[in-house]
Specification:
seven-stranded parallel β-sheet; single chain; 11 strands; Rna Polymerase Sigma Factor, Chain: A; NADP; four-stranded mixed β-sheet; globular; Rossmann fold; transit peptide; alpha/beta; 17 helices
């Protein structure tokens, strides 16, 4: 038996459970006399909980100005890649292959795709290779038997960490998914490496710990996500205090044209039909729920120091404007381009330089061919994820990581048809509500990882509990 919402209209009144009345019955909490407003995201976790502590220093305080004298290498820029066989890793290597005079690979780390990793080693000849799945080391060694010179191979998590802090690397591309990317990223920061950031958990879960560490070691966190790269590009050279507002654009996902009352009938196949492009299952569902954009709101806060009242979401179906910023004088700056992750990845690797790209492999944007760009406000009833994300961001500390982990588990359960589509929001809300009892505002790395695991386990328990005792129906 899956969790059941009374109706889609209940989503409009989502608020976290009143912790003083929680009886662990896993019922949806509905706030009374509360009106949600698009610009006033004031959903709270229980009673009297607002922003509990001043946040960590942002990676970029509303402006991006390169420091002089940071270049410390000769010839092609040496990089290491954590997650080399994933989407981010393979696209990064495409960039390296096209620009061998600009970049060279010194270390690669992958999870379990030994065949692809071996091909990458043969092509890019790194000095160090890691495979997280230790049982596959012998298979990797066999695949590299004819390679000369042979790279050093270090298995397991320690190997991934060594790749991240390789002494020759200047920049580390973090393409590994989930909290598994936190320890390698921390190791890279402590070793003085700039981070080309494609791992969301680094800031969403780890921001309160990672950002002070980055400032301590004077390293740069450069966003490889297309929306945050767009913001980063728009704030280049802004004077101090010039940033007024961040506008994150969203495609709207699979259900942007669906009426709310049809969402109760959503099937997995429906959620996986993205109107603009083909992506992995998890990110496609996140696009449908708009949780991806809610998580990006939290990232934008950590990256650029904007208050949550000054970060907005706009539905932009064409996905050509990747995000915008408004300056104090009301000018709006936007970054445009075809949806292609290689451009933001390239910019994180080359910043502050701009590298020429061939029209053959990098199609240029033709606005006349495009025709028109349209925008509309997101529907809070259709996308309750926005209010959940703003609430988690305002609570701060470990709450943002719990939100992300609970969503990841809920999406997994939905894809496995263990819960319904609307239950994704409910599982996340209930998990965040439960966590406020143990919220840590200034967590250690160990606490961040602990509550990530806790959130996944608790989210899974909600589905299991619903089998034994039906929820509100």
């Amino acid at each position: 038996m899956a969790l059941n919402l009374v109706s889609p209209a209940e989503i409009k009144a989502l608020s976290f459970l009143d912790s003083t009345k929680s009886n662990h019955s896993h019922k949806l909490s509905v706030s009374v006399g509360y009106n949600l407003k698009r610009k006033d995201h004031r959903v709270v976790f229980g009673k009297n909980i607002r922003c509990l502590a001043q946040g960590p220093p942002p990676a970029w305080p509303g402006r991006a100005i390169p420091e002089s004298g940071r270049k410390t290498w000769d010839g092609p820029k040496p990089i290491s890649i954590v997650g080399s066989t994933g989407s981010i890793g393979t696209q990064t290597l495409d960039i390296v292959a096209e620009n061998p005079d600009k970049f060279r690979v010194v270390a690669l780390a992958a999870g379990s795709n030994v065949t692809l990793l071996a091909d990458q080693v043969k092509t890019f000849k790194p000095q160090l290779v890691a495979v997280r799945n230790e049982s596959l080391v012998d298979e990797l060694k066999e695949a590299l038997a004819d390679v000369e010179p042979k790279p050093e191979i270090i298995p397991g998590e320690q190997g991934v960490i060594e790749v991240a802090r390789h002494p020759d690397a200047v920049t580390v591309v973090t393409g590994i998914v989930g909290c598994a990317g936190l320890k390698p990223t921390v190791a890279a920061i402590e070793a003085g490496k700039d981070i080309a950031l494609a791992n969301k958990e680094t800031l969403i879960a780890g921001g309160p710990f990672v950002l002070p560490l980055a400032h301590k070691h004077n390293i740069k966190i450069l966003p490889a996500d297309s929306e945050h790269s767009a913001i980063f590009q728009c704030i280049q050279g802004l004077p101090e205090g010039a940033l007024r507002r961040i506008i994150l654009t969203a495609s709207g996902g699979a259900f942007r044209d669906w009426p709310v009352d049809k969402l109760k009938d959503v099937k997995v196949a429906d959620a996986l039909k993205h109107p603009n492009w083909n992506m992995g299952k998890k990110i496609t569902v996140d696009s449908a729920t708009l949780f991806n954009k809610g998580l990006e709101v939290i990232e934008a806060h950590y990256l650029y120091g904007a208050g949550y009242d000054d970060i907005e979401i706009v539905i932009h179906p064409q996905s050509i404007i990747h995000s915008m910023v408004e300056t104090q004088d009301s000018s709006v700056l936007a970054q445009l381009g075809w949806p292609d992750m290689r451009l933001p990845i390239l910019y994180t690797m080359s910043w502050p330089d701009r590298i020429y790209c061939s029209e053959v492999t990098w199609p240029r944007l033709d606005l006349c061919k495009l025709g028109s760009l349209t925008f509309k406000a997101p529907d809070n009833v259709k996308y309750p994820s926005m209010d959940l994300a703003y609430a988690a961001g305002r609570a701060g500390g470990t709450m943002t990581g719990v939100l992300s982990a609970a969503n990841e588990k809920a999406v997994e359960m939905f894809i496995d048809e263990k819960i319904k589509y609307l239950d994704i929001f409910k599982v996340v809300e209930l998990t965040c509500d439960q966590h406020q009892k143990e919220l840590v505002t200034s967590p250690s790395l160990e606490e961040i990882i602990h509550y990530d695991l806790w959130a996944r386990k608790y989210a899974a328990s909600l589905q299991e509990s619903s089998r034994a005792s039906p929820v509100l129906a």
